[in-house]
Amino acid sequence: MKFAPSNQPYDTGNFAVFTKNLEKQFGSFTAVKHVNLAVEQGEIFGFLGANGAGKTTAIRMLCGLLLPTSGSGTVAGFDVWRESEKIKQNIGYMSQKFSLYNDLTLAENVEFYGGVYGLNRKTIKEKRHELLDSLGLTASAGRLTRDMPLGYKQRLALGCALLHNPKIIFLDEPTAGVDPEARRNFWELIHELADKGKTVFVTTHYMDEAEYCNRVSIMYQGEIVALGSPQSLRHEYKKASMADVFIKLVDK
Amino acid sequence: MQQILYLIQKEFRQVFRDPSMLFIIFFAPIVQTTVLGLAITVDVKNIQTVITDYDNSTASLAIRRKFKNNPYFSVSGYVESPVQLREKMDGWGAQLAIVIPSHFERDLVRSQQPAIQVIVDGVDGNSAGIALGYALGVLSDYTIDVAMANPALAFSARRIPLVAPLARMWYNLDLESKNYMVPGLIAVLLTMVSLFLSSMGLVREKELGTLEQLMVTPIKTWQLILGKVSPFLILGFLGLAMMLLVAFVVFQLKVAGSLVLLFGLSALFLLTTLGLGILVSTLAHTQQQAMFISWFFMVFLVFMSGFLFPIKNMPHWVQLLTYLNPMRYFIIILREIFLKGSSLKFLLNEIFALVLFASTILTLSSLRFQKRVS
C-alpha cells in the first residue's frame, strides 16, 4: 500500500475537513488535482461543479471510500490514509441514490440503519419515533419506501445518515432530480443542522443552491478554480448570480 | 453482534416480501428435484434387441429364450440377413444384436467353441457398455446351463468357469440409479441456489447504491459478510429440507445415516459456496456479470464432481483437479450418508477438505471485499 509522500506534520487546526494537494488518478486520468481545502466546523460548504468535474471522487476520498493517489487530508481530525474507519464513525454520508431500501418500510429502514450504526434497541426506537415525527411521516411508517415521493425519501435518507449523531455530514448531489419545493425544504433542513453546530459538506451542480452556503468552491476538470463566499465571488467576478460566475470561470 | 442481527433481519424481510425469491427458495427445489430426479437416470432397461439365428437349432432356441425371458432385454424381432440387421441398427430400432452362426449346435457338441456375435450400438458408450455386460451375463449363464447338463462336454471345452461368481450389490441392492443420482442432484441444486443467491444479493446492493451507504458506516467487513452469509445459510437449509422431502416422498429414498450429520455437513458446504458467491460479487459490478461468473464456476463444480461422470474415468491430471472442487467432497458425503449410513469417522477426509475450503474461501472473500468503492 502506498502512503502519502510526506509524513511531516501540518497544521490541520480545528478544521472539520482539511486537505493538502489531495489527488486521485484513475490510470492516466487525473480525476482530482491537488485540491486544498480547509472547512471550518459548523460551516455549510458547497462543493460546486459540472457533472464529471470530480466532485464525487473527492467526496469519496474524504469519506474513506476511496484512497487518494497522493496528497494528504484529515476529516474530523482523522487521516484519510490511515484512519478511514474512524472517519466513518464521525461522519454521515448520503449519496446521490439516497440508499434507502425500497422493499423495506420507512420504519424498517430507520431501524436497519440504526442497527448498523450500533445503536441499542431503545435508542433506535426513540430515534425512529423522533425522526418519522419530525418529517410528518408517522402515519406512513408502515408503508413501503418505494411508494413514497422522492422528496420524502431524500429527507428520510438524510435522517438515517444522521442517526449516530455525526459531527460532519457529506451530501453528494442530495437534490438531484427533486422538485424545487422539496429542494428548498431540504436546504432548510441543512440550515437547521448547521445551527446545531454540524458541518455540512454538500456537492451540487445547481448554482442557485450556492447562495445557501457559507462558502463554496468551484471545481472544473478536477481542479478547484474558485473558492470563497458566494457574495465575494460574485463581487470578484462582477456577476449578478453564481450561475454567471460559474459560466465565466468555465469559459476561461 | 447486534449489527449482524439487524443485517439478517433486513435480509429476511426482503426475501419474504419478494415472490420470486420465495419461488427460488421453496418451490424451485421441489419441482427441480422431482423432474430432474426422474430424468437423470443411467439405468439401462428394455434394451431393444434383435436376433439373427442362422442355426435354428435346439441350442440357438435356448439362447433366444434366455434373452426373451430376461427383464433387461426386449427382443423386438428376428432378422434374416446382415442387411436387415444394419437397417434395424441404423434406424434406431435396435441397440443390441445377437448373431448365432449356422452349425452353432453342431460345433458346440463337437467342443469347437462356436462364437456368437454380439453387436452393440456404441453411440452412447456408457449404455453400450452396460448392455454388453448384461448380454455377456446371459450368454455365460447359458454356458453354465450347458455345462451342468453335460459335464463331459464342459471339461473338454475347457472354457467353463469352474468358480461361479455370485454377485451381490451392497448399499444399492437393485443398482437403481435414483439411489445414487438423487443425493447428487440435491448437491447440485443446493450449490446453484446458494452460489447465485449470495453473489447476486451483494451485487444487487452494489447496483442500488445501498452497499456504498453500508461502506460508510462503521460496520466491520466480517460483520457485513456474516450478515450476508447467515440468512442464505438458513434459506439453504430450507431448500435442502424441501429437496429431502421430495427424496422421501417421490423417490421413496431413505437416509441410512444421521440426518443431523447431513444437515451439519451441508452447512459446512454451504459456507463454501456462499463464500464463493461473495468472492464472485467482488469481481462483478452488475448482476448480469455476477450471473456469468457464477455460471463459469458452476459448470466446473458440477461436471467435475463425479455427479454424472465417474471421476476415476477422467484423465489423471483432470482427476487431480477435481480435488480442488468442494462439490466433489459434498457429493461423496451425501451419497455415503444416504446409501451407506456412514458415520462421522468414515467421512473425516471429506470433512477436513470442506473445512479447508470453507475457511480459505471465506478468508479470501473477506480480504477481497473491502469497504471501498472501485
Note down, in words, how this protein is organized.
The complex is a heterodimer of chains A (252) and B (374). By secondary structure, chain A is of the alpha/beta class. Chain A is 34% helix and 25% strand. Chain A is built from eight helices and ten strands. Chain B is mainly alpha-helical and 374 residues long. Chain B folds into two domains: 2-41 and 176-368, no CATH class; 47-157, abc type-2 transporter like domain (abc type-2 transporter like fold). Chain B has helices spanning 2-17, 19-39, 58-69, 82-90, 104-109, 125-149, 151-157, 178-208, 210-215, 221-249, 259-283, 287-303, 316-322, 326-340, 348-368; strands spanning 47-53, 73-78, 96-100, 117-120. A four-stranded mixed beta sheet of chain B has the order 2-1-3-4, sandwiched between helices. In chain B, strand 1, helix 3 and strand 2 (73-78) form a beta-alpha-beta unit. In chain B, helix 1 (2-17) crosses helix 10, helix 8 (178-208) runs parallel beside helix 11 (259-283) and helix 8 runs antiparallel to helix 12 (287-303). The longest helix of chain B is centred in the middle third of the chain and has 31 residues, at 178-208. Chain B is elongated and about 95 Å long. The model of chain B has no long low-confidence stretch (mean pLDDT 88). Chains A and B meet through helix 2, strand 6 and helix 3 of A and helix 1 and helix 9 of B.
Fraction in helix of chain A: 25-40%
The CATH topology of chain A is given as: Rossmann fold
Largest sheet of chain B: 4 strands, mixed
Strand content of chain B: 5-15%
**β-strand number of chain B:** 4
Q: State the distance separating the first and last CA atoms of chain B.
A: 28 Å
Low-confidence stretches of chain B: none
Average pLDDT number of chain B: 88
Number of helices of chain A: 8
What is the CA-based Rg of chain A, rounded?
18 Å
Q: What is the topology, as strand order, of the major beta sheet of chain A?
A: 6-7-8-3-9-10
Trace the largest sheet of chain B across and list its strands.
2-1-3-4
CATH superfamily of chain A: P-loop containing nucleotide triphosphate hydrolases
Major beta-sheet overview of chain A = 6 strands, mixed
Order of helices and strands of chain B: HHEHEHEHEHHHHHHHHHH
Class from helix and strand fractions of chain B: mainly alpha
Shape of chain A: globular
Instruction: Report mean pLDDT of chain A, rounded to a whole number.
Output: 89
Number of domains of chain A: 1
Q: Which chain pair has the greatest contact?
A: A-B, 35 and 25 residues
